[in-house]
Structure formats: structure tokens, C-alpha cells
Design goal:
With 346 residues, the chain is of the alpha+beta class. A hairpin with a 2-residue loop joins strand 6 and strand 7. Helix 1 runs parallel beside helix 4 and helix 2 runs antiparallel to helix 4. The longest helix has 37 residues. It starts with a helix and ends in a 12-residue tail after the last helix. This is Phenylalanine--tRNA ligase alpha subunit. Keywords: Aminoacyl-tRNA synthetase, ATP-binding, Cytoplasm, Ligase, Magnesium, Metal-binding, Nucleotide-binding, Protein biosynthesis.
């Protein structure tokens, strides 16, 4: 054993790299190594001799293992020092520039609208972009022969399936799940599709957010108060609204909602077409037929509904003249909004 220890101590002094060190370790401590071979000699010893012999072999193994570990640390330190000598860092070089994105103006408007109505206790409900004819039209008081269907030129997939033309089917489905019992208080954001020629103000795909409230004793004044708060939240505290009679098959009475022009303060300009008012959405009281088809008693329950286009609202708020900017992924357009994260307009 003394000879093996002396041989090892001599050999390790000439080791100068990790590979040589590993080879030396295998030659002494490996399965066929010299120290392992000593253990096999125990079979030739008596029981009295084995404990002392085994202890000496273990001491030799511990010595060799400790020296190898220490040598490994020395070699690692030497390699690191050599690397530090050859590699240099120029601390005067400029740092890397990281481009940080910004919220899309359309996505920002949708989130603002959602946050406002969630704050009023509304739930956000989403539905299918591929809808049945029943929920897209019939459940909303638009039977197959109804002339108002011509107002929404649709993408039909089959005779009974189409890309939804509005998010109202979500309202119809939610009402149908209530078993004729209120209250219902939801907004329904999502993409909708209509056969339309794309231009500066029209798109075959656009975003819509609709709202619905159904409960006992819901009145037109509740609708007006809600929309007044909404207009002030999105367009500023000075905004006023006006309601104009209109027609929608699923509401009665129906109204268009205008806000006072935020650019000219009502004096008349190119934004409001010299009228002092800007149309932003349609609304009205839920038609009794819609309530009845969903299982509600129109004598007990009433409600109001509204629908708006976030695309149009974003165009008005941020002064965007072409709706196609929202969908063409033009970074020069999107980057304009980095400096407007905390501002109400451009």
C-alpha cells in the first residue's frame, strides 16, 4: 500500500489538465484500479487480519480522493485565471437597446370600456364567432322573412350557420340560460363580420361591444344615466349626450346616442360635420318579443340594451382617419401611441 501511495503522489505532481486528472483517478479508484484491486486481496486474509487491512485500504482511498479533489480545484482556478487574462470586457461600449411595445389603440379602448362597465357590476360574456341563424337573427326578433335582415349582409357558411353579424347572439344565449329569472347585467365584446367593402370607415371584420341589463323595473332613464356616465368616462367630463329616435328590431323604443363634439365643443367642425354632435352607438329598451322568446315574462321584466363599435370610438378619441390602420400591423402607426399611454388623446 505504501508503494501505491508513493506512486500516486509522484504521478499527480505531473498532472496539468482535467483529462489527465480523470485518467489518473480511474487508474487508481476505478473498477479495475489499483486501490480496488487491493480490496480483492481481502479474500486471502484471515478474519482477524481483514479489519486492519480494510481500514488501511480505506485510508489510502480517502487520501487519493482528497488529493484528486484538491488538484481539480487548483486546475479549475488556473483555467479561470487564464480565461480572465485572455478575455477582456470593454465597459465603454454602449448598452443594448430593447424595444418596448405599447398597447394597441383598439385593444386599449376595449379594455377601457370593459373596465368601466365591470366597475358598474357588469359581467363580461363571450360567445361563438360562428353562430346559428336562430341566435343571430330569430331569437332577436328577426324571423327569416324580416326585411331588417337586409341591413346586415352576412357571411353564410350553410343555410343555418354564419359568421355572426353582431355580438347580440351572446345576449340571446345568456337570456336563454336564465330560466326566465333576472337579473342579467352583461357586456359582450368580440369580433363580428359583415359583407362590406373595406374603405376608410368600413371593414368586413370589426369589433363590437354590446351591453344588456334585464331586471324588474328597468326604465329608459336607467339607460340614459348609464350612457351619460360612459360618455364622460371615455370622452371627458364635459361631454353631453342626446338620444334620437331610431329603429332596431330587438329594442322598442330604440334610440341613437350622440355625444357633444369634443373637438369644437358644439360649435361645428369637420369631425362632427358641422352639427356639434357625434353618433357613437345605438340602444333601446329590450323588445318584449325578445324577452318572451328567452322565457322571461315581459309583464314582470324589462331591460335595456346598447351596442357600440370600439373601432369608431378609438378613431374619434385618437383622431384616426382610416379604420384599416387597426388591422394592417403598421408599426409606424402603432408606435405613435407609446407616448400616449396615460393621455386621453393624441
Amino acid at each position: 500500500m505504501t508503494e501505491i501511495k508513493t506512486a500516486f503522489d509522484t504521478e499527480i505532481t505531473s498532472v496539468d489538465n482535467e483529462k489527465s486528472l480523470q485518467d489518473l483517478k480511474v487508474s487508481y479508484l476505478g473498477k479495475k484500479g489499483r486501490v480496488t484491486g487491493l480490496m480483492k486481496e481481502m479474500r486471502n486474509l484471515s478474519k482477524e487480519e481483514r479489519p486492519e487491512y480494510g481500514q488501511k485500504v480505506n485510508e489510502l482511498r480517502t487520501h487519493i480522493d482528497g488529493v484528486i479533489n484538491e488538484k481539480s480545484r487548483v486546475l479549475e482556478d488556473a483555467a479561470l485565471n487564464e480565461k480572465l487574462k485572455t478575455e477582456k470586457i470593454d465597459v465603454t461600449l454602449p448598452g443594448r437597446t430593447f424595444n418596448i411595445g405599447s398597447a394597441h389603440p383598439l385593444g386599449r379602448i376595449v379594455e377601457d370600456i370593459e373596465d368601466f362597465f365591470v366597475g358598474l357590476g357588469y359581467e363580461i360574456k363571450e360567445g361563438y364567432e360562428v353562430e346559428t341563424d336562430y341566435y343571430n337573427f330569430e331569437a332577436l326578433n328577426l324571423p327569416k322573412s324580416h326585411p331588417a335582415r337586409d341591413m346586415q349582409d352576412s357571411f353564410y357558411i350553410s343555410e343555418e350557420m354564419l359568421l355572426r353579424t353582431h355580438t347580440s347572439p351572446v345576449q340571446a344565449r345568456v337570456l336563454g340560460e336564465q330560466d326566465g329569472k333576472g337579473p342579467v347585467k352583461i357586456i359582450c365584446p368580440g369580433k363580428v363580420y359583415r359583407r362590406d367593402s373595406d374603405d376608410a370607415t368600413h371593414s368586413h371584420q370589426f369589433t363590437q361591444i354590446e351591453g344588456l341589463v334585464v331586471d324588474k323595473n328597468i326604465r329608459m332613464s336607467d339607460l340614459k344615466g348609464t350612457l351619460e356616465l360612459f360618455a364622460k368616462e371615455i370622452f371627458g367630463d364635459e361631454r353631453e349626450i342626446r338620444l334620437r329616435p331610431s329603429y332596431f328590431p330587438f329594442t322598442e323604443p330604440s334610440v341613437e346616442v350622440d355625444i357633444s363634439c369634443f373637438k369644437c365643443k358644439g360649435a361645428g367642425c369637420n369631425v362632427c360635420k358641422q352639427s356639434g354632435w357625434i353618433e357613437i352607438l345605438g340602444s333601446g329598451m329590450v323588445h318584449p318579443n325578445v324577452l318572451e322568446m328567452a322565457g322571461f315574462d315581459p309583464e314582470e321584466y324589462s331591460g335595456f340594451a346598447f351596442g357600440m363599435g370600439p373601432d369608431r370610438i378609438a378613431m374619434l378619441k385618437y383622431g384616426i382617419e382610416d379604420i384599416r390602420h387597426f388591422y394592417t400591423n403598421n408599426l409606424s402607426f402603432i408606435n405613435q401611441f407609446k407616448s400616449t399611454e396615460d393621455r386621453g388623446d393624441i
